[in-house]
Specification:
The chain is mostly helical. The chain has 6 helices and no strands. The protein binds heme C.
Length: 146
Amino acid sequence: MKMKALLLMSCLATVFFAGSLYAQQEGTDYVQQKMAINFAKMTSILNHLLIDENYEVIIQEANAIEEHAKWMKKRIPELRKDNEFFEGYVLQLESNATNLKAIAKRIYKERGLGNKSSEFLRAQASAHFGQMVTMCVSCHNTSRAK
Ligand code: HEC
């Protein structure tokens, strides 16, 4: 449990650090607000993957991040500025959130039936979470690396 907490803290510190550095650039308050909410949702997903294991919460959080990616997709011309990778990061964030949601739904359903047969999918769920974090950090990094 100590290791898990440590891992949780260090992952979150990385995302937060990337987010706050990025915020030093110009941008709309609205995007910043949405991103800060995303940050809280990522924290919550990690907590539920590792410690509290409420898959219903994971479904909700992943859904919100997927919606956020869809929103960013619509505003690519305005948001991407000179980040040529922006669209790719948005699309990958979206597809990983979609996949995480699908896996969480299955685990949630099977657990409800008292069935442990989909527990092996927890590793895949974590891999999608990891890809989501990678997209957060990659987009922020390339946007400010000038
Ligand atoms: C495709 C690009 C992209 C992706 C992916 C992305 N962001 Fe952002 N992020 C932005 C933009 C654009 C802003 C707005 C910056 C501004 O307004 O100055 C932002 C701002 C932020 C901020 C605001 C920082 C602050 O202190 O106000 C946080 C926090 C943040 N993002 C977290 C995340 C998290 C968590 C993820 C992953 C779930 C993520 N971002 C994924 C582009 C992205």
